[in-house]
Amino acid sequence: MKFIDYLQRDKKCYFCLWIKGIYRRLGEANKVHECRVMIIAATTEDPETAMLETFLRRIPVTIKIPSLEERGFQERMKLICYFFKEESVRIGVKLKVSKEVIKAFILYKCKGNIGQLKSDIQLICARAFLELYDL
Q: Which tens digits make up the pLDDT trace of 81-129?
């Protein structure tokens, strides 16, 4: 089983693996390896516009997970709180987050979806941590 995240970025690399069941290891130009593999892939783009028809025909099941923007207020709030709690545990510091910060995270357009939301929360926690210790 192979999980491919952001399939739209390297779709050409996976074409031979997906269609023909062959691949080349990094740095090997001449040797071809055969394999049978189940592929699970994720993309942040609409598969209908980002992928070739050849790929789409070979995908037996497609599950659409709503983007962060498509989710309701409560779900966004839960995700934001969860990521702040997770970061608090990770750095071992109790965090106090202002209403303005929470509001900014609820309202901002997060192009990178949930992964970017998590990264952005980690980033502001790291910056606050540095400011706390005046580093």
A: 999 999 999 988 899 999 999 999 999 888 888 999 999 999 999 998 8
Look up residue 94 and give its two tokens.
Answer: 């109790």
Per the CB < 8 A criterion, the answer to whether 58 and 103 are in contact is: no
Which residues touch 31 (CB under 8 Å, ≥6 apart)? 24, 25
| 51 three-state secondary structure | coil
- Residue 86 has phi, psi (to 5 degrees) of -60, -45
Within 10 Å of residue 124's Cβ, how many Cβ atoms?
A: 15
For residues 12 and 23, what is the distance between their CA atoms, to the nearest angstrom?
A: 11
- How many CB atoms are located within 10 Å of the residue 61 CB? 5
Sign of the dihedral defined by the CA atoms of residues 15, 16, 21, 26, in that order: negative
